[in-house]
Design a protein that fits this description.
151 residues, Jelly Rolls, five-stranded antiparallel β-sheet, 2 helices, 11% helix, globular
Amino acid sequence: MSRTLLKRTGITLVLGITAFAAAQDGAAQQAPLVMNWRTAEWGPPSDRPRFPAGLRNAPIATDPETGGPTYLARFPAGSRFEMHWHSFTETVIIMEGAVDIILDGTRHTATEGSYIIIPGKAHHEWLVPDEADVVLLARRDGPADFHFVEP
């Protein structure tokens, strides 16, 4: 599907491939899901220490076999998510806006449509420009955890 068509349709997320593969193995099944990310139900703004003020999440699904969540995150314009790491690989797609990510010491700019793989234990930090919020879709290969790196 072309990027132009995706933009016109508002980008719809389709999850369910995991459910098909798991069903064939007799493992736990994940329910199929089709949704438009723009109509997701966002949680309240975060006030967790060391997390960006105003960060909002919209849970989508949790893999019943690995406990890995899939969710949307909206980072406010001008926010910073301090250097941290996770035990499991995190895969991210930028849905709207732009963000700089410092990943293992290298700074990258990710814009709408960018695909990012953050290996487990890789140190990373998110820096959102002052101009606009950024929305990303993230999926973890295991349960979510956050380990902050002391400066």
